[in-house]
Structure formats: structure tokens, C-alpha cells
Write a structure and sequence with these properties.
Helices cover 58% and strands 6% of the residues. The chain has three domains: 56 residues, no CATH class; 466 residues, MFS general substrate transporter like domains (Growth Hormone, Chain: A); 65 residues, no CATH class. It has a three-stranded antiparallel beta sheet, with no helix packed on it. Strands 6-8-7 form a three-stranded mixed beta sheet. The longest helix is centred in the N-terminal third of the chain and has 29 residues. By secondary structure, the protein is mostly helical. It contains 23 helices and eight strands. This is Peptide transporter ptr2 protein. It is found in: Membrane.
């Protein structure tokens, strides 16, 4: 209803039919479950909103999501399958030389103890190049997310990224052809393709997850009857459910690292890069099909300027010492400034200031992720160096890295269809901070495993604390590997993989729901930027990712991760008690194109109807 509309309430006990009140939402008279009396409920666009009592007593369920959500998840699958299919073999491609018993394409001979390799630049260069690639892929999204919000739109930016990555994949195949590798000039085209791929991924990645969540029709919690039971369709559960599928398909795609690892070992790197490229070219027709079927958030200019205005008022009237204290954000609200006699005209309202507060909370949460990302797989190429010294019995030394994705593929359906529904049925609300804290703790435990394994590899290697390069030290034909079985490497990989389900999936939702409407791409990119910080740390420490320092390459971040987990819980645990809010406004599930500050300001002036 429009602001200021007056209606007559339905006749209920103690309410006179002629009584008139001003309301903010529609009012609907609904029989209670036992039909003994009638209850007045607030409704919005035909949806029955839960009362305060129902919010604490009714079971919450995930709402049905449109098919477009899952088609977009398929887009993410194809992009990530090609990305990780290639990424899985980069470190060996750069680090190790062409095997002396190989075919000249990077593959090793049958039953060879040599790893596949091509460029022979060593662990330091391999770490530097791969971490620089990762840094660009996760730092540039800040620019491209902002451009999508302000000028070009998310879908267009996604399409541009797909085009650039397609060209990069073709160049990468050329760089891995046997004549190019044997000429000694493969590093040039490979580096070009590698960093083109990072630019394309940076355009794609910050815009795909907000676009998936844009498709959700569940912007407000509402009550429905399901199998004779009144339940609340919860926007948080709805988004968490679809993002679990999103993350599942990311990791099904990442499983393509398994065949590419074997292709590199048996056939050569040109084949390892060809398969992901073939898969990648299913993206253009899929995006063409989706183009007319998506809810697209148009570029509306960034709210970034207004964010700085809010911060200016908060600092000007609250001072630097008020940061983090109660009342800091109140100083930036237009209503507070007007009450203090300020005559300045504002283009935003009090709700926008609340949105900014929530956005900065989200960014504070993201700051704890870099150490998590480092513990999730090791610092730089440290894990790759660890596995290079283990007893692999002819297996590729990067094969078990793929258990990361396999573990997630197995665990996501378990969480989505067993664990989370059971928690909802039992009335247990496992909030976002609780989930992330559990994920941080689990990752720390897994990272301890890397440290322990590296210690025992050093103790049992024929070369002692030179285990990684032992094959280059001992005479040809002699054993160069530790007696520690490569199978033990699976334990920390699986534990850290499961932790991602609780940390990364939750972070996607936080980035979307706690950011202003015209900053969702930017805030999602800030979430991704934490991976860039991890890569920068890996890049800065690249010279240390070598023997004999590998134990501390694992142990140092592990200790930091344990301390960080405790600090994170006590800093943000209050957020679990907040009611879930999507910062697009409830009207957006009807009109996703426009929402002005003036309309939101009018909405704030309406008086909430109450049961008489």
C-alpha cells in the first residue's frame, strides 16, 4: 500500500468496525491453527509475515528457488572446472623440468618416480608465479565488481570475463605443445595465458554469486502451511541452500583436476590443458540461453560516495575514539543530524546507515579469512613441496590435492539434506558466526596435520632436511623419497576441505545480504580480495618455501589460525542473535529494478499496525 493509506480493519474481538488506523503493511485476518479464534497478521505483497512469537516458535524451512538459480550454478561449474582443471597442474608445470625418461610433452615414463614437469624453474618461481596469478584473480575483482555495480551490470561483466578466459585457454594449449616446450621458449606464452586467465576470472567471479542470489524470490520471512504445519520460509535458509549447491558445483568442477593430473603425468600438458578448454566452450551457449531468463540487477550508480558521507558524519560528530563503540553509527543518521539542527539535505535515509554498519561488520568478518585460506592447503607451494618428498608409488604427487573437491562434493549433500534439516527440525539455529567459527577451528586442526607430516618426511628422507630436492642430489636410480606414505597426505586435505563448507559458503551469503543494493558486487569482491591477501603473503614468503624451512611454513600459520578462531568468536558472536535481513528491501522481490531512498524514507514513516 502507499504511504498514508487508511483502511478499516477486519472485525475481531474488541475492535469496532468503524475504527480507522494507519498501517505500514496490508492486514489479513487468518484463522489460527486450531480455528478457535481469528488472528490479525501483517502481510506484504500477499505474504503472511510471522509475528514475534512465531519467529521464536515456528520451524524455519528453505523456500523453493527458481530454475535460473541452478542454471547459473551450472555456469559456475563449467567456469570453475576449466579454471581448476588447469590450475591443478600449474605448480609441477613450472617447478619441475621435463622428465628425462618422458615424451617431451611433460609426461613421465611408465612407472617413473619422476613427477610430470615442463619449465624446470624450481619451487620459488613456481610459488611466485602461481601466487601472483592467484593475487590478480582475487584482487582485480574489487575493480570489476565496482564497475559492474556502477556502469556495466553484472551479467555483461560475466560475459566479458568468459570471452577473455576463452582466448587464454587456447594460448595455454599452444604453450604446452611439445615443440614449444622443447624450444625452451614456453614460459612467454604460458605467462601471458596465465595472467589473461586471472583477468577473465576476476571479471567473472565477483558477479556470478550475487547474480545467483538476485534470482531468489525470498526476500522476507513469511509463513506458509506445509503438510499441515505452519512454518516460516526463511530467506537465510533459502539462500544458504542454493549457495551450498553453488559451492557443490564449484567443487564438482574442481574435480576435473583429477583427470588433468593424470593426463599431465601420462600424455603431457597439452592434453591436460585441452580438456578444460573443451568444457569451457559450453559457457557461451549457456549464457546466451540464460540472457532473457534472468532477473538482472541493472547498474544504478554506486552507493560508495554515500558511504564516505556517512563515515564523514560519524567521524566528525563522534570522533576517532568512538570507532567500534555503541552509538558510533547513530551520528551518521540523517534523523539524528536533523535533530541536532543540521540543515544539510541527504540523499539517503537512516536505513542506509544501518546497511553501511552491517557492511562494515561483514568486512570485519572477512579480515579473518586470509589466515584461514593459507591453512586451507598450505602456504604457497609448501604442500606441493611436501608431497614431492613422500612415497607416492608412481602416483602423481598432486593427485590427492583433488580430495579437497571430492570431500566437499560428498559433504555438501550431507549438510544440505541431513544435518541442516535436522537442526531446523530440532529448533537449533546454527548462525553464520557459529558456522564460520567451527570451520576455522576444523581448518586449524587439519593444518596441524601438514606440520606433522613434514616433520616425519624430513626425519625419514634419504636427504634429511633436503627432502624436496632429493631426486637432484642422490645418484640416478637410487631412492630419493621418504618412507612416509603419500596416503597420509589425504587427512589434512579432507579436514581443511570440509571446513570450507562452513566458512566460504557462509561468507558468500554475508557478502550479499549485509551490503547495500548498489554495492553487492563490490562487497562480494572484498570477500574474494581476502584470497588475494593470502596470495600476497604466499608471494612475500616464496623464498622461504623451500628446504629446510617447510615445517614452519605450515606451523606458523597454524598457530595464528588457532588464536584467530578464538578472537573471531568473541568479536562477532552477537551477530548470530540478529534477525536475518537482506539489504535489498522487501519490495525487491516484486520490483527488482528500482528502489529509491525517497521510497525507503516514506516506508520508514508508516505506522506499524498492531493487534487491537
Amino acid at each position: 500500500m502507499d504511504s498514508g493509506t487508511t483502511v478499516k480493519t477486519a472485525a475481531v474481538a474488541d475492535v469496532r468496525p468503524s475504527q480507522e488506523i494507519t498501517i505500514s503493511k496490508e492486514v489479513k485476518v487468518v484463522p489460527t491453527y486450531d480455528n478457535a479464534e481469528e488472528q490479525v497478521y501483517e502481510t506484504h505483497n500477499g505474504l503472511i509475515l510471522p509475528t514475534e512469537e512465531e519467529k521464536s516458535t515456528l520451524r524455519r524451512v528453505a523456500g523453493k528457488m527458481p530454475a535460473s538459480c541452478y542454471y547459473l550454478c551450472a555456469v559456475e561449474f563449467a567456469e570453475r572446472a576449466s579454471y581448476y582443471g588447469c590450475n591443478q597442474v600449474y605448480k609441477n608445470f613450472i617447478r619441475a623440468p621435463l622428465p628425462p625418461d618422458g615424451n617431451g610433452a611433460g609426461a613421465a615414463g611408465p612407472k617413473s618416480q619422476y613427477t610430470a614437469g615442463a619449465l624446470g624453474r624450481g619451487s620459488v618461481v613456481a610459488t611466485a608465479m602461481t601466487e601472483a596469478f592467484k593475487f590478480l584473480a582475487y584482487a582485480l575483482p574489487v575493480l570489476f565488481g565496482w564497475m559492474a555495480d556502477t556502469k556495466y551490470g553484472r551479467f555483461k561483466m560475466i560475459c566479458w570475463g568468459v570471452g577473455i578466459c576463452g582466448v587464454a585457454h587456447v594460448i595455454m594449449i599452444v604453450s604446452a605443445l611439445p615443440p614449444v616446450l622443447q624450444s625452451g621458449h614456453a614460459i612467454g606464452p604460458f605467462a601471458l595465458s596465465l595472467y589473461m586467465l586471472s583477468i577473465g576470472a576476476a571479471q567473472f567471479k565477483p558477479n556470478i554469486s550475487p547474480t545467483v542470489m538476485d534470482q531468489s524470490p525470498h526476500k522476507v520471512a513469511h509463513v506458509i502451511e506445509q503438510n499441515g504445519e505452519r512454518v516460516i520460509v526463511d530467506p537465510e535458509e533459502s539462500i544458504n541452500g542454493v549457495m551450498l549447491w553453488f559451492y557443490l558445483l564449484i567443487n564438482i568442477g574442481a574435480c576435473f583436476g583429477i583427470p588433468t593430473t593424470y593426463l599431465a603425468k601420462i600424455v603431457g600438458y597439452w592434453a591436460a590443458y585441452l580438456v578444460p578448454t573443451i568444457l569451457y566452450f559450453m559457457l557461451p551457449p549457456l549464457l546466451w540461453y540464460l540472457n532473457s531468463r534472468l532477473v538482472k540487477q541493472p547498474p544504478g550508480g554506486s552507493d560508495l560516495g554515500n558511504v564516505f558521507k556517512v563515515l564523514g558524519d560519524c567521524f566528525r560528530h563522534g570522533g576517532l575514539r568512538s570507532i567500534g563503540r555503541k552509538g558510533f553509527w547513530e551520528q551518521g543518521k540523517p534523523s539524528v543530524r536533523a535533530a541536532a539542527g543540521d540543515t544539510k539535505q541527504y540523499t539517503y535515509d537512516d536505513q542506509f546507515v544501518n546497511d553501511v554498519r552491517r557492511t562494515f561488520q561483514a568486512c570485519g568478518i572477512f579480515l579473518f579469512q586470509p589466515i584461514f585460506n593459507i591453512n586451507d592447503g598450505g602456504l604457497g607451494a609448501a604442500a606441493n613441496a611436501l608431497s614431492a618428498g613422500m612415497q607416492t608409488n608412481g602416483l602423481p604427487n598432486d593427485l590427492l590435492d583433488n580430495l579437497n573437491s571430492v570431500s566437499i562434493v560428498i559433504m555438501v549433500p550431507v549438510m544440505n539434506h541431513i544435518i541442516y534439516p535436522l537442526l531446523r527440525r530440532w529448533g537449533i539455529k546454527w548462525g553464520p558466526i557459529s558456522r564460520m567459527t567451527f570451520g576455522f577451528a576444523l581448518c586449524t586442526v587439519g593444518s596441524i596435520g601438514f606440520s606433522v607430516l613434514q616433520y616425519y618426511v624430513y626425519q625419514t628422507s634419504p636427504c634429511g632436511y633436503n627432502a624436496t630436492t632429493c631426486a637432484e642430489i642422490v645418484p640416478e636410480g637410487e631412492n630419493s623419497l621418504s618412507s612416509v606414505s603419500y596416503s597420509w597426505y589425504a587427512v589434512p586435505i579432507i579436514l581443511t576441505a570440509i571446513s570450507e563448507i562452513f566458512v566460504n559458503v557462509t561468507a558468500y551469503g554475508i557478502a550479499y545480504t549485509r551490503s547495500p543494493k548498489n554495492m553487492k558486487g563490490l562487497v562480494s569482491s572484498i570477500n574474494l580480495f581476502m584470497t588475494a591477501i593470502s596470495a600476497a603473503i604466499g608471494l612475500a614468503t616464496a623464498p622461504a618455501i623451500s628446504d629446510p624451512y617447510l615445517i614452519w611454513a605450515f606451523a606458523g600459520p597454524t598457530i595464528a589460525g588457532g588464536v584467530m578462531t578464538v578472537i573471531f568468536w568473541f568479536t562477532f558472536k552477537h551477530i548470530d542473535k540478529e534477525e536475518f535481513v537482506i539489504n535489498t528491501g522487501a519490495d525487491d522481490f516484486i520490483n527488482t529494478d528500482k528502489e529509491s531512498d525517497e521510497e525507503r524514507a516514506k516506508q520508514n514513516t508508516k505506522t506499524i499496525s498492531e493487534k487491537s
